[in-house]
Amino acid sequence: MGKLRTEEFQVNMGPQHPSTHGVCRLLLTMDGEKVVDVVPHVGYLHRSIEKICENRTYAMCIPVLDRFEYVTAMSCNYVFALAAEKLAEMEVPERAEYLRVIMLELNRIASHLIFYGTTAMDVGALTPFLYGLRERELIVDLFEMTCGQRLTYNYIRVGGVSRDIPKEFVPKCREAVKIIGEKLSDYEGILNENPIWIARMKGIGLTDPQKAIAWGVSGPVLRAAGVKHDLRKDDPYSIYNKFDFDVAIRWNGDCYDRYLVRLDEIRQSLKIITQALDGLPEGDVRAKVKAKFKPPAGEVYVRIENSRGEMGVHLVSDGSTKPLRVKTRGGSFNQLQYLPEIVRGKGYLIADLVAIFATFDIILPEVDR
Amino acid sequence: MGLYKDIKNLLLGMKITGKHLGRHAVTIQYPEEKWTMPERSRGIVVLLSDKETGELNCTGCLLCMRACPSAAIRIDAPRGEDKKRHVKKFDINFGICCFCGLCEEACNFCAIRMAPKYEFSTENKDDLTWDMHKLQEMGRDVDYVDTRKKKIPKPKPAIEEKPASETKPAEVKPDTPKQEENND
Fold first, then answer.
1. Which residue of B has its CA nearest to A145?
2. How many Cβ pairs closer than 8 A exist between chain A and B?
3. Which end of chain A, N or C, is more open, meaning fewer C-beta atoms within 10 Å of its C-beta?
4. Is this complex's ipTM strictly greater than 0.90?
5. Is B54 in contact with A161 (CB distance < 8 Å)?
6. Is the previous residue joined to A340 through a cis bond, with omega within 30 degrees of 0?
7. Phi, psi angles (nearest 5°) of residue A305
């Protein structure tokens, strides 16, 4: 019998694929069932947010940037407000800073809960998805109570926050923190020692710290590879240096560690929120901003630690009411770039690729902008 | 031994199911049960009317139109013979509205408000553009604190588009949730 002739073939995974978390096309080169190479094709969700911002005043940019990374829209609001404040050298009231930190951390937890749910669902478990979204609802309700929206908040503004929290916010927030803290053991109980979960996650998608840094990867993906890099500690913004928390870190750099790092981060965020609620001062929530806000001409780059890595805004102003240039940076883009490097030549199956893509926690609006 | 372990694990799983058996569902049965949105929810944009006269509060100052990031508001308010603006047309296209609430903050006259209402889907795209009368009817039952200055100056020609800080209405306690925003 003659030898079977085999050849590589190409498969499109996406653009509409449940496990690509958005609209991303992965062009896979397959050798049988093994993935030889992967080329991500992006741009399906391009909405030209940066260009839209150039035609809007500073106040109008914030609802537009809500759509930049809608899973953690508070961060998008915040990073733009921070850049504008830095340009104008504006002081923000202390209560507003505390409220911002509370909202940012709540949003980080909500984002990680979505990660927890969707990753487990991609790998084949449905229960974690329901668990994660059930607890996320508590947080989303808090946001709606405060600013009126569940996804695109438009809450953090230049000079502070749009309005003060309602009276029942603090007790409800404490209750939510307590519930999420208790449920975390449920989350870990259902997955951490699950043999299927371990088989699908451990040793899959190994990242190399040196190469990850070279590709510009940041956030939980980098911390899971053993690099202690957290902008809340390394380059403190807002009032993060007032709070006592640890940087969650793991060393193996596989899918399993990326999952553990995020669960640890939820715990640390809960710690920060509790401290912020305890120390919440009274006072104004917004500095006086002129109706026509005109920062002086100049340029500034600010960066914050988002749940998906470093999020930054490069803002150039020419002294008018509209920004001259808004360049945004999201963590997902660099992680998506790094994806082919860790998949190529390792002989992973498509199912492994799904797990890697899910634990990178890439969100496509942030990639395409 | 393997069988025992399996049965044990099965029972363990059933225990969790049993725990949830007596509980109420997290979800609600939507068409029968309705969910009340929180007071601050940005559900739909409405126009408010005066509590006594029932006329629109809107003075046609165009501040909300200028604050809108997606240009969803179209106002036609020409100056009449008395040199005051009269609102002829006030259309909001909810197809492009992004529900950011900036119009509500820009308004100094308690005229436009985001109300906690929902269920406005339609089969026809054109029905998403609401005119003045529909917006006013939607706002009839929306309760609000009137923070306008009681006396609207008659002899003066008109209320020009002053910056928000100058036409600041009466001080309201910062705690009241219905506080009219007057910044930006």
1. B38
2. 67
3. N
4. no
5. no
6. no
7. -90, 110
Beta strands in chain B (DSSP E): 44-47, 73-76, 89-93, 112-115, 129-130
Distance from CA of B151 to the nearest CA of A (A): 24
Of B68, B102, B174, the CB nearest to A164: B174
Residue A239 lies in a domain: yes
- Structural domain including A162 reads 48-347+354-368
Q: Find out whether A289 and A159 touch, Cβ atoms under 8 Å.
A: yes
- Distance in angstroms (rounded) separating the CA atoms of residues A250 and A223: 6
Q: Do B175 and A66 touch (CB under 8 A)?
A: no
Q: Which two tokens stand for residue A181?
A: 């803290």
pLDDT of residue A229 exceeding 50, the answer is yes
pLDDT tens digit sequence for A200-220 = 888 888 888 898 899 989 889
Mutate one of A152, A154, A156, A170 to test the B interface: name it (highest B CB count within 10 A): A154
pLDDT in tens, A262-281: 999 999 999 999 999 998 88
Query: Once rounded to an integer, what is the mean pLDDT over residues A224-241?
Result: 87
Measure CA of the first residue to CA of the last residue in chain B; give whole Å: 72
All residues of chain B having their beta carbon less than 8 Å from the beta carbon of residue A290 are 163, 165
Within-domain flag for A9: no
Which residues on B lie below 8 Å from A193 (Cβ)?
none
Distance from CA of A188 to the nearest CA of B (A): 15
Strands (E), B20-141: 44-47, 73-76, 89-93, 112-115, 129-130
Residues of A whose CB is below 8 A from B181: 162-163
Q: Please check whether residue A42 is in contact with residue A364, taking contact to mean a CB–CB distance below 8 angstroms.
A: yes
Q: How many domains does the structure of chain A reveal?
A: 1
Across the interface, whether the CB atoms of B41 and A60 are under 8 A apart is answered no
- Closest in A61, A154, A164 to B101, CB measured: A154
**Inter-chain touch A289–B184, beta carbons under 8 Å:** yes
Tokens 């660099």 sit at which residue? A334
Residue A77 lies in a domain: yes
- CATH number of the domain within which A249 lies: 1.10.645.10
Decide: residue A1, CB within 10 A, 0-12 exposed, 13-18 middle, 19+ buried. exposed
Task: Please tell me the least confidently modeled range out of A26-30, A180-184, A291-295.
Answer: A291-295
- Identity of the residue in A62, A148, A289 whose CB atom sits nearest the CB atom of B42: A148
Lowest-pLDDT range, A155-159, A325-329, A332-336, B140-144?
B140-144
Residue A56: closest C-alpha in chain B? B69
Asked whether residue A317 is domain-assigned, the answer is: yes
